[in-house]
Amino acid sequence: MKPFRTRMALLYVLTLLLSTAALLAAAAAPLLMARGSRSAVLLYAAFSPLCHQDPERCFLLAGFPMAVCARCSGIYLGSFLGLVVRPFVRPLADLRPPRPPAFLAVSLPLAVDAAGNILRLWSSPAPIRFAVGLLWGLILPFYFLSGLGGLFASRSETQ
Prior knowledge:
Strand 1 (60-61) and strand 2 (64-65) form a beta hairpin. It contains five helices and two strands; from the N terminus they run H-H-E-E-H-H-H. It is mainly α. It has helices at 4-34, 39-47, 70-89, 100-118, 126-158, and strands spanning 60-61, 64-65. Helix 4 packs across helix 5.
């Protein structure tokens, strides 16, 4: 069995690749649609369970909406950036998640903005939706890798 640090590095690389692929796929859908490619429909369909895809709340590329809304775009980009900086902030084998106040600090703006929009108190423009999504997305990889690593740490200890 490989050492835990090696397994964490592999999990990190795989997570980074999947995050990159998701980000690129969300942006590729409108570009493919502009070229008349049928594969664009598959990309939109793949993201539809994850996002409402309301065209009025999506950024446009090549005249077509992205496969995810502005808030989800921010979350995807934030998650990617969080993954990129994660090894510089904390060693991959360090499974401690961020403290709860950090999660609350980045979650509160997203929650307030989403609640205000749901309750029709305001309608945030796409850049605001993107910014709160980006902020929240930045912290997600820290929890995701901690949880995933914890699963593998527990599994190796029981074998």
